Amino acid sequence: MIKHILLVALLLGNFSASSVVFAAEPDPFEGRLLPLELAMSFRKEIDLSKDQNRALGKMVVALQKSVAEKQWQMQAAYFDLIEELDEATIDEDKTLSLVETAVGTENLIKLEQIRFLIRVRNMLNSEQIAFLRDQIDHGWTEG
User: Fold this and answer.
1) What is the DSSP letter of 79?
2) Of the candidates 74, 63, 62, the residue with the CA atom closest to the CA atom of residue 13
3) H-state helical runs in the chain
4) pLDDT in tens, 49-63
């Protein structure tokens, strides 16, 4: 049983997308979408308004709720998958359906994250965006 839990943890670690940032990978959007961490790191320099700050906070809470629900669904699908793989004879259709559910849920999480990044960018004005892009161009990294 412990071996199965570790396998599920490994799978979830490989397939989970709980972070809003695409860490350790090149930015697939080449700076067109801006991480929340960047905007918050320079909130004073970009003169982030109280309204923008409040809106960002609400967006973060909504994202966390949505992602948490989907991660729970994905985890359940992986547990069911592990149980199916323990059977003497593996039902291919059922197993592939479980994989499809888990991977589909992972993709929904990624879409939520992209939606969030789009909304972050859309709430910033052109001067704020330019400043933040300049920080990226000059080597800003998260952390």
Assistant:
1) H
2) 74
3) 2-15, 36-41, 50-85, 92-123, 126-137
4) 999 999 999 999 999
Amino acid at 79: F
Helices 2-15 and 92-123 cross at an angle (nearest 10°) of 40
User: Within 10 A of 45 (CB to CB), how many other CB atoms are there?
Assistant: 11
CA dist 74 → 69, 79, 109, 127 (Å): 9, 9, 10, 39
pLDDT at site 87: 94
Give the residue from 21, 33, 29, 55 showing the smallest Cα distance to 129: 33
- Report the alpha-carbon distance of residue 135 to residue 130 in Å, rounded: 9
Q: What is the pLDDT of residues 28-87, one digit of tens each?
A: 887 789 999 999 999 999 999 999 999 999 999 999 999 999 999 999 999 999 999 999
- pLDDT at residue 142 tops 60: yes
Q: Taking the domains of the chain in order of start, what are their residue ranges?
A: 2-12+36-137
- Asked if residues 132 and 34 have their Cβ atoms less than 8 Å apart, the reply is yes
pTM of the shown model: 0.72
